[in-house]
Amino acid sequence: MTVTYMTDGSPKSWDQKKRTYEITYPLGEKVIWKDLTARECLTKYDAHNAINDYKCKLREIEGKELQLLKVKDTK
Description:
Helix content: 25-40%
Shape: flat
Number of strands: 3
Strand order of the largest sheet: 2-1-3
Distance between the termini: 59 Å
Number of helices: 2
Order of helices and strands: EEHEH
Mean pLDDT: 85
Low-confidence stretches: none
Strand content: 15-25%
Structural class: alpha+beta
Largest sheet: 3 strands, antiparallel
Radius of gyration: 16 Å
C-alpha cells in the first residue's frame, strides 16, 4: 500500500487562471468583476456577501456570454 502525504497546501492550476464573474446584490444590481482568480473572487465575494446578509449571488461568466462582453468593452 502506498501512502501519499500532502506536502504543500496551496492550490494548483485551478487557481491561476484569471476569470470574469458577475455578482448580483439583493436589490438587483449586477456588477462584473474581471481578471480575478478563483481565490481572489471568493475572498471578495465573502466580504460583500457578509455585508448584504448573505443574499448575494455569484456566477462565472464564460463561453459566448464572455465573448459578447469582450466585444462590448472594445467598442
